[in-house]
Amino acid sequence: MPGLITPIIALLFDGSKIISLGWVDSAIVVLYFIFVLGIGFYLMKFTKTGEDFFMAGRSMTMWIAGLSFVAANLGSLELMGWAAASYQYGILATHWYWIGAIPAMLFLGLIMMPFYYISKTHSVPGYLKLRFGDGASFVSAVSFGFMTVLMSGINMYSMAIVMKVVLGWDIHFSIWVSSITVMLYVVLGGLLSAILNEVLQFMLIWLGALLIPILGIIEAGGWTNMVDRIHQNFPKGDYTHLWSTLGSFQDNPMGIHWTGIVFGLGFCISFAYWTTDFLVVQRVLTAKDLRAAKMAPIIGASFKMFVPIIVILPGLLGLAVIPGLVGETQAIATGGHSYNEVLPLMMARYLGPGLLGLGITALIAGFMSGMAGNVSAFATVWTYDIYRPLHKKLASTDGTDAHFVKIGRWTTIIGVFVSIGTAYLVQQFASIMDYVQALFSFFVAPLFGTVILGMLWKRATKAGGFYGLLAGTVSSIGMWAWVKMDPSALKIIALSPYAKDMAENMYRALWSWMICVGVTVIVSLMTKARPENELNGLVRSCTVLPSEGHLKFYQRPVFFASIVFAVFIALNIIFW
Amino acid sequence: MDESKIISIWFIIGCLLSLFGIIIFAANVVDYIAPWSGTVTVLHELRAGIWWGAFLIVIGAVYTIAFNPWKKKTEAA
After folding, report:
1. What residues make up the domain containing B34?
2. Residue ranges of A 247-266 with Cβ closer than 8 A to chain B
3. I need a labelling partner for A216 at 20 to 30 A (CA). Which of A43, A335, A526, A550 fits?
4. Using one digit for the tens of pLDDT, what is the confidence trace for A410-423?
5. Domains of chain A in sequence order
6. Closest chain A residue to B31, measured at CA
């Protein structure tokens, strides 16, 4: 999540080194690098056509597509950032993993995936082109491509700072070694290499991080004792309830109301990210058939639901066993530790020889899976949605498949170097990060409005899609600028003067989505709709979906989705 | 692309986990018998490195055997 980067950057100003790696730990890290590069070299001979390079041959099983779908989102900043957020906000941070992910992932699998898959599009902008024409597609492709490489650079710089603070590694060493490794294996093996490495990285993230909550729970004396210790350590705050403190902005550490969590996060931001961000959707598009494509997000959701065990629980355990971590400013002033360091502190607390190397490998694996996701998605969108139409227009002919594979490889290299450049730019001008993160949030919510209307409403027109997307994006920028210039506008945007940053983001996303939908509907009703026969495979009411009648009920995606949803509801009730 | 010719990623994962497990297990067994690392962590008496290393070896072995590519070739022949 972009909003977590700034506090991590603040770590730079804390000069201490938290942990030291021994030779056994270093051997683990080196072995990991050898394996990921080896996978790239090995897969090079299997990556020949555009379909291989950009779509992994559309041959992935539902397990591989599902795990890479989650892994591409699970960066090292997620691990560090959300552990810190759970120390700061308590169990409320879990909302980003449950209501902020599960319903949207199930919706993607059951409702939206058939249209992405049947249309045989290479990308989300590619779907927009089929549904709404060049205008909306081009806006979406350019904004996605631009923001993806910038975000990749920002994440790269943030990871380098984490490695410097945690291990004392040189920033340049971290940036160059990790990014060149990612570049090599993506250039060599394309999306296939990125995806298979993501599955490996997902396993390492779990096995490297799982020991911390296990040992933490043993030290705390079980869940109940942990909760008691948190209440003793922080008698004024409630850090252990998910919903019961959300009746008022002032009753919880996040300064948010349940309407913001349910409608802003649970509906708008979550659905926008998980169903239209091509970085994650691309993984599912590689599935070998429609059932695998529908099952992949459901499998992803079932794993996502338990990620709080390795991300949120360490933060909560920190509240119980290492109270006294403070905000970054206070930590710098007093020379103490800040809550942004909670995960490395817990690593240093519990992990001995070799295990520490495994934990650091988990952080590096997280970063690399996220970066490979950015780079491979960027290469696809640039090649198919930006370069190809321009090439066709200028050369008056479509290029060969081999030509586009070559362009894809060069785009990957250039994308990585632009990311590295961004990382150095951010090093010089830290405020750029805040603006880039804000920019990223401007496009996501309106894009969801455009895509969902395109899939579910046959009356939506080309002009409606373009102007709706434009109005939603411009209004989001306008609201952000308004609050920047006049902070009192917060009470209008976020419905309360007590709302904090996260609440503002959620309500802004909600308003921009509503504006996008409103403008799309109005403009569409004023313009001529496309004939229904042109919308086959693109719109729900105009498409006959393949029947699942031949499958037994327990083989159908909806059966698995129901189980995942039931567990999701149960978890929310248990931790209410 | 003929994906049936590609070595399964689960086999590769099994190999890496086995190697990690062997390194972690061996380093911690040696550290238990003749302490060398100088690291004293909370709950170090539980010897997490030894049993987590062993756990990785078991998981790695299961994946390596179950997805062994040579076994697949023999069955096909």
Report:
1. 8-70
2. none
3. A335
4. 999 999 999 898 88
5. 15-247+278-431 (1.20.1730.10)
6. A353
